[in-house]
UniProtKB/TrEMBL annotation, chain A:
UniProt KW keywords: Cell inner membrane, Cell membrane, Membrane, Peptide transport, Protein transport, Transmembrane, Transmembrane helix, Transport
Protein name: ABC transporter permease
Database matches in InterPro entries: BP-dependent_transpt_permease (IPR050366), MetI-like (IPR000515), MetI-like_sf (IPR035906), OppC_N (IPR025966)
Upper classification of the organism: Bacteria, Pseudomonadati, Pseudomonadota, Gammaproteobacteria, Pseudomonadales
An individual GO BP term: protein transport
SUPFAM superfamilies for this protein: MetI-like
Domain ABC transmembrane type-1: 101-290
From TrEMBL, chain B:
Protein's name in the database: Peptide ABC transporter permease
ABC transmembrane type-1 domain residues: 96-325
Pfam family, one: BPD_transp_1
Family to which the UniProt record says this protein belongs: Belongs to the binding-protein-dependent transport system permease family. OppBC subfamily.
Regions that span the bilayer: 9-30, 102-123, 144-162, 198-218, 256-287, 307-328
Amino acid sequence: MTTKASLSTTASEPTLYYPSPLREFWTAFSRNKGALAGFLYMLVLAFCALFAPWVAPFDPSEQFRDNLLTPPAWLEGGTTQFLLGTDEVGRDMLSRLIHGARLSLLIGLASVVFSLIPGILLGLLAGFSPTRLGPPIMRMMDVMLALPSLLLAVAIVAILGPGLINTIFAIAIVSLPSYVRLTRAAVMTELNRDYVTASRIAGAGTLRLMFISVLPNCMAPLIVQATLSFSSAILDAAALGFLGLGVQPPTPEWGTMLASARDYIERAWWVVSLPGLAILLSVLAINLMGDGLRDALDPRLKNAA
Amino acid sequence: MLSFIARRLALLIPTFFGITLLTFALIRLIPGDPVEVMMGERRVDPELHAQAMERLGLNKPLYQQYFDYIGQLASGNLGESLRTRTSVWNEFTTLFPATLELAFGALIFAGTFGLLAGMIAALKRGSLFDHGVMGISLTGYSMPIFWWGLILIMLFSVNLGWTPVSGRLDLLYDVPPVTGFMLIDTLLSEEEGAFLDALRHLILPAIVLGTIPLAVIARMTRSAMLEVLREDYVRTARAKGLSPTRVVVVHALRNALIPVITVFGLQVGTLLAGAVLTETIFAWPGIGKWLIESIGARDYPVVQNGILLVACLVILVNFTVDILYGLINPRIRHQR
């Protein structure tokens, strides 16, 4: 994209006719109402996560022993002190959910970063060396894809033991193959373009070709995939927590909260419903954003999925 | 066609060995001493320790261990569970029908409603129904299914009392396992009402497990259908004066199904992963619950070869889908 933009800059009067790429992107993105709503929700969530200790009314592990399983404020028996009620040991649900956002976003972000970077590197290697490095790398990815992602994550956590770091690690490994495949596929098409030949003839080395000429043109599908795997990371982390293999209690992780709330399903619906609702809304918001991003960045894919 | 199948089969071999490497590594990557971890205690008696190392073959060099493992697999020996002392293969084959039954239920649910909803949404593009289907399917796609299961239990089992909370069959009934599929076994046993009871047990788990595939299939059918409806041959069929139903069902749907079948196949992985969660919630005695319990009990032979079996299953299904795809779509078959 950058190459094309700079070409057109020299060809004609640019600023009058062409909006900046960022502005162009924003116009396309904000036309999609769902994507905009998802984006706003994520902004609020990110704010809550960043400033959790100040936003949350209580400490997430503070137990109010006189207020066990208090219903939310709008129900009979609820108090305005605990807006969303309390759990089985009297901890404030709202505070726990807000602190949970912190963990979910952290896990999502960290696992995306830790799989995006090695994924791009491996994909570049596989794309630039289609006969030697490519096949072994791609076979390895096929092996990883043969296992359902959650099961692979479960297996990895079973080896390493449960916990926050291992959860991130497991999810990062699981989402690696899709980045490798996408990068490789994008690289393979780009390598046939004239501009690559041109920069080769101009004497560009392999590293320069990889990172400066080719990679920027492969970013659109990767960014879309990153948002998608961000949402599935949140889902998988919650699933691991729910199975007792993720972040351990009493840490207020959404999935872990659900697991311990299971016993109160008949008495206190809010303890079960709210953490799940938090997961659903966040994942939905990210997926809406992902759809918008895809349409804005890569219009060819508009009807693909 | 045969050479197409042969080429696909040849691709399976490295993948299979890769997976054996993975499951082989699995048990050896456990931090610390594997014997102590498996026995669940520190400082095992040195003699017992040596015996266990010997039994597990962990005292040999690594490459030797790997060849032993492959040899074992080739002779059909998948080891035995540390907990029950029964062979992993036997446990797998007794539990697998339960998972298969659940998965079939989920696919039937997802396939029927997904195809219908996607098709109607495509035909009424831009209508309220279309927007509704797309919104619901995006929500379904984002659903944490373990939570969805709990909500449905809360609503239909606890509050309304329509469906049982867990298991496959009420304890009242005594049904001999013939096929392992509860719906078939209850029909064979001629016990009054057992079949309906089994069906009532299956409905909620199948809906929960089918939710994500339903969403994916509905979205996929809609976009495939929209694509096909624009084709010239559909216009020709209309111009010939065929009835709208015939054009849609016979002409358009058939081609729209090609990508949908691929998605169906890809959903098998999702189904197996979802089965882990669904079976845990509904205490459904299938392989998902089995694997999770084995991990909890540090029953490593089961974890190792159970995962191997599941992976082989996924590979086989993907292979079958590939072949089916080649059968339906000649363009794929002749690709080099």
